[in-house]
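# nightly structure sweep
# worker-07 picked up a monomer target from the shared queue
# config: single-sequence mode, recycle default, output format = structure tokens
# input follows
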Amino acid sequence: MKVLHLFLRTLLVTSFLLIVPFASAGEPFSEERFKELQAAKQPVLIDVRADWCPTCKKQGIILAQFQEDNPQCGLTILNVNFDKQKEWVKHFRAPRQSTLLLYRGDKQVWFSVAETRADVIRQNIFNSVKACGENA
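# output follows
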């Protein structure tokens, strides 16, 4: 009976995760937009993600909260679809979904795979984006 109860609870939680909207802090990736941001020397975070990825979902929540809390940073997040934009996954050398790459102009300043600690993500953005100032 306990096993059945545990199974049903797991099934319910899994079903809930499938219907909860996928958190996304950014805009869809396009080469044109990426080049435009680089030319303007704007900070841009490339978020290589997949809709089915629970790690990506956690990262999306963290990044959305960061954007809300720190508009002064001027950070743009571009989402690369891991399943549909394979040429860009390869271009950014993303070993898997849940890869984050931070650029300042044309220079990559941070790279992370599967990081879900909010403090680590936030601190790396603060350390790499001058406009964030003293809010670290």
